[in-house]
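Reopening: TetR/AcrR family transcriptional regulator still failing for me.
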Amino acid sequence: MPRITAERRAANRSQIVAAARRCFSREGFHQTSMPDIAAEANVSVGAPYRYFASKEEIIVEIAGDAFRMMFDPVERLVDADGEVTVADLVQAAIEPVSGDAAVDAAGQRVPVDELLRCAVQAWGELLRHQGLRQQAQAGFEGLRHRIADALRNGQRAGSVPAELDPDRGARVVMALLHGFVLQHTAFGLDDTAAFIDDVRITLTDTRLLREHR
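Support: Ran it again with your exact input. Result attached.
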């Protein structure tokens, strides 16, 4: 029997991930079994186990794709090392959500709605799965530190209030992003442009405006 090529293996793996994402998005993590994923992918029952040791491993990968979609633009904005505001950071993360499709770690186009539904479910899994929580916390802390650095850059440029503690401010930015994803996915908040405008208005310190008049 000929050995499977690397390209074929990657394609099979992507097929299984896509099937799992559809199942999770439609039925939820706990209502979806590995045989369900295999059936959705139109592969043998044992095929998913050739690529993933457990359903949790697939959850981690899909959740990672969802958060990468939002946070990679934030990383790029931070790396630009220019004048940045809190609202700029929120906008960078939220704008990709307004599209219909994103690109996963394998370079495949995937529906944004499926990714976000899986991301919201993944938050619930953090409360019961220590391994998932540890991975999520590591990613969260890494991004939070990068955002804090961007806020410090903004303070030096004068675009971020000097009174803001960058480390605590980074948590505010993360809270806005997570809150938007929940409202967008669960409650139908779909006017991304208006939300970003409202973030800018809400974050404007009217006391500072009065002082400059």
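The first strand starts at residue 101 and ends at 103. If you still see a failure, please send the error message rather than a screenshot.
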